[in-house]
Each structure stands twice: as structure tokens, then as C-alpha cells.
Design goal:
Blueprint: H1 18-53
């Protein structure tokens, strides 16, 4: 393990272009879509369990 503290060059002249921002938006949409799918499946499972537990002999 080195104890020397070498300074690394830092490049501050980068810019976010339209192409860089696009994948983040698509990823967010995909994640939201996956989350909605999971929520729907959990809700369906909860409703199925309630239906199974319901006493139909009223």
C-alpha cells in the first residue's frame, strides 16, 4: 500500500449533452414501470388471499 499522496488530474470541462441525459430518463421510466408491475402483482396477491379467507357461508 502506498503512502504517497499523488494528486490526480481533475477534468472540469465536461458537459452533459442531450445524449447523456436520455438513458437516465429511459432508466427511470423502466424502473417506474417495473415498480408498478410489482405493486400490481402484490395487490393481486393480497386480494386473492382476502378472497380465499372470506367466509362465503353467510
Amino acid at each position: 500500500m502506498s503512502t504517497d499522496k499523488d494528486e490526480l488530474p481533475i477534468e472540469d470541462d465536461f458537459a452533459i449533452t442531450e445524449d447523456d441525459a436520455q438513458p437516465q430518463v429511459e432508466t427511470a421510466k423502466i424502473n417506474l414501470s417495473k415498480r408498478r408491475t410489482i405493486d400490481n402483482l402484490l395487490e393481486e396477491r393480497r386480494l386473492q388471499k382476502q378472497l380465499a379467507d372470506f367466509d362465503f357461508d353467510l
